[in-house]
Amino acid sequence: MQQNIGQKFALLFAIASYLAAVGCLVAAVLYEPVQTSDPIQASLIASVIFFGGCAIVLHVIARARIKGLVSLKDPENGID
């Protein structure tokens, strides 16, 4: 599968987003809240959800077969 430059960048940013989500998850687990409704821990958990969602979307974009969708041509399946 041939990827264009945009898909390669999307994959790089997806990997960075996965790493950021894991980092925020580790920080949220290791952080000991001062009170039960601590805004720092809540923001870390929200960051995990945000970075995880971004990573999934970027990963799907990076793995999509755009050539056949954009030009409506797919030489692998015999559509010219």
Q: Describe it for me?
A:
This protein is mainly alpha-helical and 80 residues long. The chain has one domain (5-77). It is 71% helix and 0% strand. The chain has three helices and no strands. It has helices at 5-30, 39-63, 66-71. Helix 1 runs antiparallel to helix 2. The relative contact order is 0.17. The mean pLDDT is 86.
Please give the number of β-strands. 0
Query: Portion of residues in helices?
Result: over 70%
In angstroms, what separates the terminal alpha carbons? 17 Å
Percent of sequence in beta strands: under 5%
Number of domains: 1
Lay out the secondary structure.
Elements (H helix, E strand, L loop, with lengths): L4 H26 L8 H25 L2 H6 L9
Keywords: Membrane, Transmembrane, Transmembrane helix
Give a quick rundown of the structure.
The chain is mainly alpha-helical and 80 residues long.
Structural descriptors:
0% strand; 71% helix; 80 residues; 3 helices
